[in-house]
Amino acid sequence: MARHTRGPTLSEFATLSHRRRLRFWGWGYEDEDLTPEEAGRIRASAAKAIGHAPDEIPPPVEADFDLPAPRAAAPPALAAMVSATPYDRLTHALGKSFGDVVRMRLRRIDHAPDLVAFPKTPDDVGRLLDWASSANLAVVPFGGGSSVAGGVEPDVGDSYAGSLVIDTQHMNRVVEIDRLSRAARIEAGALGPEIEAQLRPHGLTLRHFPQSFQISTLGGWIATRSGGHFASLYTHIDDFVESTTTVTPAGRLETRRLPGSGAGPSPDRMIIGSEGMLGIIVEAWMRLQDRPTHQTSASIVFSTMGQAAAAVRALTQSGLYPSNCRLLDPLEAAGNGVGDGAAAILVLGFESADHPLDAWMGRALELVADHGGAYDREAVAASLAPGAASGREGAAGQWRNAFIRMPYGRNLSVGLGMIGDTFETAITWDRFDGFYAAVRERAAKAIGEICGHSAAVSCRFTHVYPDGPAPYFSYQAVGTRDGRLEDSLAKWRDIKAATNEIVVSLGGTVTHHHAVGRDHRPGYEKQIPPLFRAALIAAKSALDPAGVMNPGVLIDPAGRKMGQTGVLGGG
């Protein structure tokens, strides 16, 4: 067996890869939309909440926008990879948060990028950064554009001569596979499906499935410390990174490929979560796993959220490491059609490429039973039967499929005047009970006061750790009853600011896996130690002397005051 396998060359891969066009005004691809049944449910829900069947504010077309002329022009040597077409500028103007989708419906683009570049090699990226630094152009790295935190909006203040978005979509190959070490060198612009398609023939998987999997990239996952679908053990992209290569304005930063090292602070840890403010990640060696061959799942019912949370804590501290341990509180369960609102439901799953899972699931069910959990023994037995596809088609698989489809619903609900959003955090087990109650109470009160009607806040666990869970809160509200989407945007801004303040003031993190961007920065400023902030500014000054890399996220560049940027700052 070959120890190293080379991936396709650039010319070979060009014949294999074809990207569908992204929907510039909302989530997903232009050729993929809600089914009639899905759309019907959303319309019925909106009509019930608003009190009448609302007219939809239609989605925009390119001709609806009058973009300002670009303030910069690419030098001849770079012109072939730079675009100023309306479609490219619109597609790279905003991310995919609720506020971003509303502004697209309003035909309102406050900070369109002047230019969009499409490099094909790390050397191309280096030449673009040299030009941007010398021309005082703010640079915004762009993978799939799925940010829900204002991370890709070129809202960069007034001290730059223009803005340049650098899209890494042409750098999307699995370049090399080390089968012996079970790792691969992957270009940072590769989308989730592209990565898995290239690893599948080798029996391997990266096994990182965020909700944005279809339209997000490896570089974006690393830059934002992405959280995947799986609930324990391998939760964040951090767990998979073996080494990184980042092109910065000061030069190329390439870390040594090792399984672990105690040699000082880790340079990879500085790059992971840097959100494009230090440079552009161009490739990474990633730890892989063999593709699972054994899967099982179960759905467990608890009469109270307290019992359910205690059971999940026992599971996380048992060393069983379930692949799925997604707890839905009673309201969340009812909202997802898997309960009547009277009980909390735990979706539990295990996967393995090595061994049957009977013992793991058996012990897990003993633990949940100790805490009052009830489950269908026959369904569990069926999921453990040889050849059962329960991991993909059982409770865990059904949840995962619905999870991936959820963002498409926002494309329609926004135009109907509804506000539907989430906020996520993490807290230790000793503080969870009080935290859970206080967040739901305070957030529901804030949303009710902002929107003028009673509101309910539901919760699920997306990820769980031995020392605490990552609660993910959801809410629905009426933004406008008469088609004024400006009202929806203003209310959402106020809700976002309120929920940011609530989770941080109660001791949680402002974000567990959605990144900081511009929208979470007020909470991040309260959370980050001032001395570390100073160290981060110094690191940015060393790697980005001109301060051009994604200004406004995490920190302000030295010598530049960004002020209140992003959708929350009125940008």
Please describe the topology of this protein.
Elements: E1 4-6, H1 10-14, H2 36-50, E2 82-83, H3 86-91, H4 98-105, E3 115-117, H5 122-135, E4 137-142, E5 162-167, E6 174-178, E7 183-187, H6 192-199, E8 204-205, H7 218-223, E9 241-248, E10 251-254, H8 267-271, E11 280-287, E12 289-290, E13 294-302, H9 305-316, E14 324-328, H10 330-335, E15 344-352, H11 358-370, E16 374-375, H12 377-384, H13 390-393, H14 395-415, E17 418-424, H15 429-451, E18 457-465, E19 468-478, H16 485-505, H17 521-527, H18 530-543
Parallel strand pairs: 3-5, 4-5
Antiparallel strand pairs: 1-6, 2-3, 6-7, 7-11, 8-12, 9-10, 9-11, 13-15, 13-16, 14-15, 17-19, 18-19
Helix pairs in contact: 4-14, 4-16, 9-11, 15-16, 16-17
State the gist of this model:
This protein has 571 residues and is an alpha+beta fold. The chain is 34% helix and 19% strand. The protein has 4 domains: 233 residues, Uridine Diphospho-n-acetylenolpyruvylglucosamine Reductase, domain 3, CATH 3.30.465; 107 residues, Alpha-Beta Plaits; 107 residues, GMP Synthetase, Chain A, domain 3 (2-Layer Sandwich), CATH 3.30.300; 47 residues, no CATH class.
Strand content: 15-25%
Radius of gyration: 23 Å
Shape verdict: globular
Strand order of the largest sheet: 1-6-7-11-9-10
Query: What is the SS-derived class?
Result: alpha+beta
- As residue ranges, the low-confidence spans are none
Q: How many structurally independent domains?
A: 4
Top CATH class of the largest domain: Alpha Beta
What does the largest sheet look like?
Answer: 6 strands, antiparallel
Query: How many extended strands?
Result: 19
CATH topology of the largest domain: Uridine Diphospho-n-acetylenolpyruvylglucosamine Reductase, domain 3
Q: Separation of termini?
A: 56 Å
Average of pLDDT: 93
Q: What percentage of residues falls in helices of 4 or more residues?
A: 25-40%
Number of helices: 18
CATH architecture of the largest domain: 2-Layer Sandwich
